[in-house]
Write a structure and sequence with these properties.
heterodimer, A: alpha/beta, Rossmann fold, six-stranded mixed sheet, 10 strands, 43% helix, 22% strand, globular, B: mainly alpha, ABC transporter involved in vitamin B12 uptake, BtuC, 12 helices
């Protein structure tokens, strides 16, 4: 990392995440077509585009849920395309889902504790055979998970089964689980989907707080006012290809972007 | 029926029921992390007993049992790594057929190593005629060993799954594999671990029951059928219900002796299995809603 810092003095900051010529084909469908972009550390970047533009596919490629057809993805200076999902997660990437994926049968606290394991576990068999250290670790995990639930203002729901919570609360649990891993990069897939206007404002505040904690955020979102308010940069996808990449102010003036949104549905 | 006889049957039922419950929990652990029924589960029980009996020549009883459990766990892990781990997203049917193949392989290997003779571990305390009296009921101390060992295993598993990081990761892997991967959990290791755990508890059950039920190269098969019946009866994946269902089946079998000939005991388990599969495939304690939430 120190060597990287030397380089950044000249040509701007080294990106945390960089995609170069990434393609994804599903049979005849070109879901992601030659997409290149980078995310600077400590920034909030949004990916927008009409339905079916390939936003969620792009997230799945970055997180390693899907293999890329071509191109490279670099995260923290390391090429991660072809790496296993859990290995990428261990490098410091966490994500939330458009349709929430919590662990059925676990309490909110337990869900967040699972997210924390990646940071604290010494090894597979240490947990089985060294009991005193396991209990100590267990307490540390529990304490940190409670702090995060408190941070997200759902500490009172810690012992409720996560999948029985209200929608907005489930989103908060998922966010806490992602933050528990202390990621360098947080991928948020439509964090405001299905939330009312007050909850959306709360999410906006939360995302900027997270960014101020030093966590870089990449999000997919349909709520344009949220995207325009909080993003440092916006990437626009259309039919799997990059249409524009600019600051919110410039994106709002970009005629091409305005056209695809007026030509598409009422998402804008 | 006199009260004494009633209690005698009841204790016999609880003893066998605890064993069925342990076999069923072995099924559940693997089902929860992989979505497959491991039909070699009964063979793990047989291997535990057989290995302990062989080791008894060189080691005292306690060490022989501990070593047998560890060796069976290693066999479980080895089987998973050889036959299952490297498969890329195999279908459930294919995996089930593989486990049936593994069960035949283990059974035939046992036949070659140990022959057809019926063996058993000695009684842990006393011998086959030692009893103590509970009121007017005569109980073999081995029955207490079986019930206590099963209860301790269930309590231990419960603590393991609730309060240790690895146990929680196994539950996470069972509940949502995609999310578990994204939390940095190596789900393949969790599958190997679930085979080890199932093999280990199966082997321990095989050791404590050996003095009462005896051990033979093919004794795993009927146990697997009973354990499978109990797992289905309780609702697949639900271990607490498996305990209740196991004891229920044990008691039904024990009392059936007073109505139908002993030879019908196995038929009862299979009849219950068929009935449940036809009428309530999610088990008497399971809900169809919970079953639908599973992605497999």
């Amino acid at each position: 990392m120190s060597g990287g810092n030397g380089q950044t003095m000249g040509g701007g900051q080294e990106p945390l995440l960089a995609l170069h010529g990434v393609h994804k084909r599903f049979g005849g469908l070109h879901a992601v077509n030659d997409v290149s972009f980078s995310v600077a550390p400590g920034s909030i970047k949004a990916v927008i585009g009409p339905n079916g533009a390939g936003k969620t596919t792009l997230f799945n490629l970055i997180a390693g849920n899907l293999p890329v057809s071509a191109g490279t993805i670099t995260f923290r200076g390391e090429e991660i395309q072809g790496k296993k999902t859990h290995a990428i997660a261990r490098l410091g990437m966490a994500r939330t889902f458009q349709n929430i994926k919590l662990f059925h049968g676990m309490t909110a606290l337990e869900c967040v504790m699972v997210g924390r394991h990646v940071r604290s576990r010494s090894g597979l068999f240490a947990g089985l055979f060294s009991l005193p250290s396991t209990w100590k670790e267990e307490r540390a995990i529990r304490t940190r998970a409670m702090e995060l639930l408190d941070f997200l203002q759902i500490a009172d729901l810690a012992h409720v089964e996560a999948t029985s919570l209200a929608f907005g609360q489930q989103r908060a649990v998922e966010m806490a689980r992602a933050l528990a891993a202390e990621p360098k990069l947080l991928l948020l897939d439509e964090p405001a989907a299905g939330l009312n206007i007050y909850e959306t404002a709360e999410v906006a505040r939360l995302i900027t707080t997270v960014r101020d904690m030093g966590i870089t955020v990449l999000l997919v979102e349909h709520d344009m006012s949220l995207v325009m308010d909080i993003s440092d940069e916006i990437l626009v996808l259309s039919f799997g290809a990059k249409l524009a990449e600019d600051t919110p102010a410039n994106i709002q003036k970009n005629t091409e972007v305005i056209n695809i949104y007026l030509g598409a549905d009422d998402a804008a | 029926m006199s009260l004494d006889l009633f209690l005698q049957y009841l204790f016999a039922g609880i003893t066998y029921g605890s064993i069925y419950a342990i076999v069923a929990i072995g099924f559940n652990i693997i089902y929860n992390t992989t979505g497959i029924i491991n039909f070699a589960q009964g063979e793990f029980v047989m291997l535990g007993g057989m290995i302990a009996i062989s080791l008894l020549e060189y080691l005292p009883l306690g060490y022989a049992i501990a070593a047998a459990v560890l060796i069976t766990m290693a066999i479980g892990a080895l089987i998973e790594m050889l036959f299952i781990r490297w498969l890329e997203s195999p279908s459930v049917l294919r995996m089930i057929i593989i486990t049936i193949g593994i069960s035949i392989l283990l059974r035939e290997s046992a036949l070659h190593i140990w022959g057809e003779s019926i063996r058993s571990l000695p009684y842990f305390y006393g011998n086959e005629i030692t009893t103590f009296n509970l009121g007017s009921v005569h109980i073999s101390p081995q029955v207490v060993w079986v019930i206590v060992a099963c209860a301790v295993m269930m309590a231990g598993l419960s603590v393991f799954f609730r309060s240790t990081p690895i146990g929680r990761e196994m539950r996470a892997c069972a509940a949502n594999r995609t999310a578990a991967l994204l939390c940095g959990i190596n789900t393949r290791n969790m599958v190997t671990l679930s085979f080890m755990l199932s093999a280990g508890i199966g082997a321990l059950a095989g050791c404590v029951m050996s003095p009462i039920t005896y051990t033979q190269y093919d004794s795993g098969t009927s146990l697997a059928i009973k354990g499978f019946t109990v797992a289905i009866l309780g609702g697949l994946g639900n271990s607490l219900a498996a305990v209740a269902a196991g004891i229920l089946l044990g008691i039904i079998e024990a009392f059936s002796v007073s109505v139908v000939p002993l030879a019908f005991q196995d038929a009862i388990a299979i009849a219950i299995l068929l009935l449940i599969l036809f009428v309530k495939p999610h088990g008497i304690f399971g809900s169809s809603e919970a079953a639908r939430l599973k992605d497999f």
